[in-house]
Amino acid sequence: MNHPLKGKKNGRCNRTACQAPLEDDANWSMHDYMTGGRLYYCTPCARKFTEADFRFREPIRCSIIEGDAS
Ligand SMILES: [Zn+2]
User: Fold this and answer.
1) What are the tens digits of pLDDT across the range 28-61?
2) What's the total number of domains in the chain?
3) Distance between Cα 61 and ligand 1 center (Å)
């Protein structure tokens, strides 16, 4: 089941297995190549993506963009 706010800023984490609430969390996000927008993730999921990116020597996908920093 996908939450209607899945992947949205201050909505729910975009990882289907997670979908944690993002309110009061950092606004980690990555570029959404499908729409050109951003997809949002909770901090633990953002860390997991970053760890995997390091491991596979890929560019870091999750970041906090300037407009979302609070
Ligand atoms: Zn998550």
Assistant:
1) 999 999 999 999 999 999 999 999 999 999 999 9
2) 1
3) 14
